[in-house]
Automatic annotation (TrEMBL):
Low complexity bias (residue ranges): 168-184
Organism: Phytophthora fragariaefolia
Pfam families assigned to the protein according to its UniProt record, in alphabetical order: RVP_2
InterPro entries: Peptidase_aspartic_dom_sf (IPR021109)
Positions of the UniProt region annotated as Disordered: 151-184
Protein name from the UniProt record: Unnamed protein product
């Protein structure tokens, strides 16, 4: 029997309450910024998918797998360790499927880790999905308005450590502060450059013979 390899992932099975976390992924009314999509597959319509930056990978509920258009991904035998938001660590054999589904006019083919989730969501689309498709989120309506990515949607597989697209996990206030800081930095650099160039020109004029 091949040896088992233990890999680790993080999945917030439910959002942390305000008293449990000071995450900036909340609205001013202290309600979590849950972005829940109603996605479709060839086998069934209206599957619930949670888009969540707190998940280090993409997951599909074991009981919902049959409702998707999917194929098994062959992997070496390994164990998966998933830490839930409650602090509980779940260990299970790692199983991955490549599922095809759509949201409005956008079609996806992404790899999802099969996990025994609760019945609230059929899928959790985490960091790999966010990094690959780069969605623009309307935090007021808690929905996706468009995707910055274009072209092929075939997944390269679950990503162990992906970087969130800029602003993907930021509500409007955080995004605005980030943009303001970026703009201030750019203006400061521009001002410093103008001052240096002006001083340089003055020195050249003083050194030139009349």
């Amino acid at each position: 029997m091949p040896s088992s390899v233990l890999t680790s992932d993080t999945l917030y099975q439910r959002p942390l309450l305000p008293s449990e976390s000071h995450s900036h992924c909340k609205k001013k009314d202290d309600k979590p910024n849950l972005v829940i999509l109603k996605v479709n597959s060839k086998r069934e319509r209206s599957l619930r998918a949670l888009v969540y930056c707190g998940a280090s990978n993409n997951f599909v509920r074991l009981q919902s797998r049959a409702r998707l258009d999917f194929e098994e991904v062959e992997l070496p035998r390994s164990l998966l360790e998933v830490r839930l938001s409650t602090g509980v660590v779940v260990r299970t054999e790692k199983r991955v499927v490549r599922a095809r589904f759509s949201y409005e006019e956008k079609k996806f083919a992404d790899e999802l880790i099969v996990l025994d989730l609760d019945e609230k969501f059929d899928m959790v689309l985490g960091m790999p999905w966010l990094a690959r498709h780069d969605p623009v989120i309307d935090w007021a309506k808690r929905t996706i308005v468009r995707f910055r990515s274009s072209g092929a949607t075939e997944s390269d597989g679950p990503v162990g450590a992906a970087h969130a697209p800029r602003g993907a996990c930021d509500p409007p206030a955080e995004a605005a502060r980030g943009a303001a800081a970026s703009d201030l930095s750019a203006r400061t650099l521009t001002t410093e450059r103008v001052v240096r160039e002006s001083v340089s020109r003055i020195r050249r004029l003083r050194s030139d013979p009349i």
